[in-house]
Amino acid sequence: MSFSIITDTSANLPTPWLKENRVSAVPFSYFINGREHKCIDTLLFNAKKFYTAIREGTKVTTSLISPAAYSDYFRAALENGEDILYISMSSGISGSFQAAQLAAHGLSEEFPERRIILVDSIGASLGEGLLAMKAVEMRSAGMSIEETAAELEQMKTSMCQVFTVDDLMHLRSTGRLSNAKAVIGSVLNIKPLLKGDSAGRIVSFAKTRGRRRSIEAVADQYDRLVSDAENQTIGIAHADCMDDVEYLCGLLKRNNPPKEIMTVDYEPVTGAHVGPGALALFFFGSREFRFEKAFC
Predict the structure, then answer these.
(1) Distance between CA 260 and CA 185 in Å, rounded?
(2) Through-space distance between the first and last CA atoms of the chain, rounded to whole angstroms
(3) What share of the chain is helix, strand, coil (3-state, %, to 5)?
(4) Are strands 279-284 and 159-164 parallel, antiparallel or unpaired?
(5) 57 contact partners, CB below 8 Å, separation of at least 6
(6) Pick from 282, 235, 294, 258: which is nearest to 123 by CA?
(7) What are φ and ψ of residue 289, in 5° steps?
(8) Residues 30-89: pLDDT tens digits?
(9) For the chain, which terminus, N or C, has the lower number of CB atoms within 10 Å?
């Protein structure tokens, strides 16, 4: 039985892919000089211009999407007679999942014959997006909405998210880094390795000296943690650092080459939090990684 798959723009999935695979993305808002923007079409997003503006001092802020806005996006599918599987940005870094829950509760009373199942991805960017891609595969294989949701709940804990940033200021100032006090500042050219923990929060779990070494450390974590690399699509999201992406891709292909590497620009809402120069890797691997101890 078919069902509607909905995610949000934090999932960082290219607009052509969304259209081709019948996936909707709830657009998150960001604000530049008080003016609201939404990245509805990734093909129209000028990442170079956006991240250059941030480097030059432009302040970008974000806001939480309301339950009413979620209701509007969910309602269209429900009125079309479809059940909904919603794959959300991590509740550990955003209140969007809770807002979606409120919307789903109200709509369930209005549409008692329909199913609305929410999956907290405990991820962001392609950590969320790769789960949505798996959901499409399962739907195409004829799995029910309940079966697909159950599989995603199992799979999400094995989604490894490893990334590094040029400047922790963005994550610190927006409260997205859970253990910011444990990380040494940039004066010593110390670059943190960050991950999503078991609750979907961003935590620093290691430190390296220098940008190049931090990228190599990301690749080292991939070699340590990845499973069945040759049969999976892995993801890289970056905030205007394509040379670093190419270097990382070369490292990933040395020992455990994946089936495919999907590369995307960080969309503006998540990008405003991680900042220019952020480089993130997403792949399925060891479930224990999320539970490994971070800095205290």
Answers:
(1) 35
(2) 47
(3) 45, 25, 30
(4) antiparallel
(5) none
(6) 282
(7) -60, -40
(8) 999 889 999 999 989 999 999 999 999 999 999 889 999 999 999 999 999 999 999 999
(9) C
- Which three-class secondary structure string do you get for 102-124? HHHHHHHHHCCCCCEEEEECCCC
Q: 36, 29 in Cβ contact below 8 A? A: yes
pLDDT classification of 182: cutoffs 50, 70, 90: very low
3-state secondary structure of 69: helix
Let me know: does 170 contact 274? Beta carbons within 8 Å.
yes
Contact (Cβ atoms closer than 8 angstroms) between residue 214 and residue 208: yes
Exposed, middle or buried by CB within 10 Å (0-12, 13-18, 19+), for 296? Answer: exposed
**Beta partners for residue 236, in sequence order:** 263, 281
pTM: 0.93
73, two tokens? 């996006």
pLDDT-derived band at 172 (thresholds 50, 70, 90) equals: low
Helix axes 67-79, 96-110, angle to 10 degrees: 40
Q: Which amino acid is at 94?
A: S
- Rg, C-alpha atoms of the chain: 19
Secondary structure (3-state) at 127: helix
What pLDDT, on a 0 to 100 scale, did the predictor assign at position 191?
Answer: 85
The tens digit of pLDDT for each residue in 99-113 reads: 999 999 999 999 999
DSSP letter string, 157-224: GGEEEEEE-S-THHHHHTT-BTTGGGS--GGGTEEEEEEE-TTS-EEEEEEEESHHHHHHHHHHHHHH
DSSP state of 141: T
132, 7 Cβ separation under 8 angstroms: yes
d(CA 124, CA 165): 15
